[in-house]
Amino acid sequence: MKHLELSYEKLNDLLDECFWAERRYYNAAEDIQKTEWKRFLGNQSVNRNRFCNHIITALDQEEQEVDRLDVIKGFPNRDWHEVKAALVNPQADHLIEECIKQDNVVLELIAIILNDGWLPTHILEIMVPMEFQIKQSHIDLETLRLKIQKEATVSQTQILENSNPSDNMGSD
């Protein structure tokens, strides 16, 4: 098999993993109840879908066959491992870590494809912003996580201050 054909196979593998990342973000957005997380994760799912569409377009332009993977999103189509994981550990942190793990697989494949350099330039040019946006989303994710933790701490402090009976006794 020619090296270029292997490179296109890697691109199809990237497409596959990118679809799985989209699915993870979509399902996490469904499972998490906090609005900020839902919005962020839903947006990331859309971004991963855009990446997939860019890859499909690039493969079509090069008249390469796209390995179609039918990744179905949503609760009814999840395998029992995912359902069990969501029920056992529904916390946002666990679900988000699963998304990041999948993103890391995508980032590894992007690095391999970029380092290989055998694909046409217009395809490689898709990979650079894709890699940047995924890495930036991880930074944004951590920023959101810290913001939500800070809000929770402030909220708990206010609840404790309002429920402290010794503060209310001296005002009579």
UniProtKB/TrEMBL annotation:
It comes from the Bacteria. Gene3D superfamilies: 1.20.1260.10. Residues 9-114 form the DUF2383 domain. This is DUF2383 domain-containing protein.
